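Follow-up to my earlier ticket, as requested here are the two runs.
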Amino acid sequence: MTEIHEGVFVNEAHGSVHSGSGAQFNFYVRTAEEKLRERARGRTRTIAEEDRVHIAQRFLAPPGLQRARDRVRDTHTVLIDGLPGSGRRTAALMLLHELPETHGSLHELPDTSDDKSASLLDPGDVGPGDRLLLDLSEVEESRYLDVQGELSGLRSTLIGRGAHLAVVLPHHLAYLLRADLRYLVAEVGRPSPHRVLKRHLRAVGIMPTAEELSGAELLTYLAKAPMRDVAALADRIRHCRDRSPADRGLPDWLARSLAVQQDRSAQVAADLTAMRSGRERALLISTAMFHGATAETVLRATNALLDVMSHPPDTTPRLDRADLHAELSMIGVEPQPDGRVRFGAEGYDRAVRDHFWTFLPDVRRQLRDWFKECLTDAAIGPADREAAITRFGRQVLRTGRPEDLAWLAERWMSVRPWERFVPEASQALAIGLDDERYGRFFRQRVYDWATSAETDNRLRQILVSVCSQTMALTHPDQALVRLHHLARRARGPVAANARQAVLDLAGSDERLYRQMLDRLAAGLADDRWPTDRTLFTELADPLRGLGFATVRASLIACWRSVLRRPVETWAAPVRDWLTAGVDLRHRRLVLPVLAAAAATDTRVSGRVYRVALDWERAGHSDERAATVRDLLRTIDAAQGLDFHGRAA
């Protein structure tokens, strides 16, 4: 039973609280990753081809885009400028999307230095025919100056490799742009928000008439709304359509969607001024934060906030005070038949949250602590928890406190039972990673955690999930680097999950596959991380990428390190490579890689040859015998011997 007291609450355990079960741990990890995948389906910042096609169907070319097209085609580089909210990033992405597809890929350049200490713009990130996006819209002054200093060198690489780059400039730092780069600038204007809305609606099968989109309230809203808010309005209209009775139409869907956007800040300020007690105000923000939750949840949150704020207890006998229904009615809340509480006016809950975080800056830390404590209440259902974290995330990012989300993720992994908070901590970090302004802050924080030996193993599992399910969609290069570090440092099931995430991500794309082989070659040369050997033997594919000299070089370097280990650690993958070499089409590429790796040490080459002989005897075929003979010849040649074993 749940008992409710003034200022404190005690819950029964809802579900298992055992913290040692591997099955339970995996359940919460799967739950968290499924929620992250659901969240990713509604994102607009991913640059995967499927999502670019989705954006292209809704994209309206802004003024100035043709100049940008000319720049990127003529010079291989364009610097996109424009007012915030005008759709600069989308315009840059669509410029690259429109370019003819070659053998390269379209990806976003890393915006953190990670393992590289020298260069911010690494030419190694540019492949032949690549289409590259670099978003500097929220960069700080010093980094902006440093990036400009390296851009000229990168442009030479772009031209030489037939690649193209679109850079989104920080409009607020326009005065810092170097004179020698200004000819590359193309300024895009704000497209017609009215036409953008119409295009979005038509893409989902809603065909509005001119009259239906001519209302004064809509036009007033569109006059100032950023393009992302116009897209969000179209999505709310679609959502209303999908959930409305068949007799409703666009006027009703539009009215309900616009009601959410009404500015109720003045009303909230007036209501707060009229409130007589701290308890009323605590009840107000608790209702706003847990809007749509049960009345009991709101009451427990109210009492928790009063405790955090060290509010004096009410000494009036309980039965002499108003009950919860009366308290809620006093702040404009009517409990619903299902026992849940909501404000009567659309958008009022958001205005309350905005007011508290904007005009009570001195209690933001206490609000953070309060929110953490609220989420320890096991009685709050998954949907209410998810909604509350989204609301909290919006407030702390809006008010410049990204560290509050990172703090929450760490703290939730230190409570018992910590497994139950895996979805919450994952969502908190995903919100930060998705943010246009603070995404780079979180990518850097995740890197710092991933590379630290002090990071708790429980937090590492959260990082594996958000890197593989969230960061990989927008910044796969950076996600791969972080997953690699986690695979090296994590323990137990978390280490296994991290290794599999590395293999899945590196195996999903040829460029990432080559990048991972490069990282493994460097890591195996240092011989510091045993996990690198496991990753290599599981990742290296004898039928993949051997036509590239860089791939062959990385494979040879990796095999050279691996073959120096005990035979039982590498015999099985060598047999797999020999099996691939049975096919004459692949033999001429597969065998030279093994031979070059083994030839530098006669003891190693002897062991490889013995493994090959055992493999031949196990198969009893002419093709296997021919493969082994060719391997011996190739090793002899690599060692400077003729195939009879005489010195060349």
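Run two:
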Amino acid sequence: MAKAILSYLPKDATRLIEPFGGSAAISLAALAARKVPHILIADSDQPLMRLWEAILYAPERLAEGYQALWEAQLGQERAFYERVRAAFNREHCPEQLLYLLARCVKASVHYNAQGEFNQSADHRRKGAKPHTVRKRLMDTHALLKGRATLLCADYRETLQLATPQDVVYLDPPYAGVAQRDKRYRACLDQADLFEALHALNKRQIAYLLSYDGRTGTKTYGAPLPESLDLLRLELYAGRSSQATLNGKSAFTYEALYLSPTLQARLSDVALQLEPLAA
């Protein structure tokens, strides 16, 4: 869906800011497509930001660390994964997190109530081979070099850095009202998010928000306040894999919201209210 989301970046954007950095997929896609000259990747997850720092500043060392772990696992993959996971929860080394992401289920981060990484391994695979990971790291490093700033901070602190020339992309790592999300170390409060969005509107900061969606007739995510004056678009995300497993056919749509300031800056774009192809 990156292509569809990027179609709503104004041509005069000087920087794209992702306060919930995660994989920074949209920021990377924006650089690759030359949509913006600079990006700011931020997240409150310190180990994750240390991994991004290693990709930007020491990709060769990171690749070597991953290779050492990948080779050491051979013949003892199950037990080795658990040892690396335990070590990461003590040491928070970037190469350990990279290895865990390569091996864990759906390559997704999960934390327990104590803030420890607890995602299980996908025992069907050993993770991408070292030469493949090295190439990905070096390609990402080349894309980021001289064009990216990294920040470990709460999303509200990051939003304070936004200027009228920037565009902010928010993809909060949760859905629902004030629920603990296992992908995130800290509990995010929905009311705090809405307050932050209102503040962006008052400062006339342009932003895009990925927040909710639907599969077939089932919707998820609580409604956003009408006072935010956001334009809601639907992006087609494909068939629902869960519905397919249940012998049904259903399509998933992700919602994308455009802020009032962004709508005004997109005067040359025909804003569509119908579902958009990803």
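The only thing I checked on run two: DSSP finds eleven helices and nine strands in the chain. Let me know what else you need.
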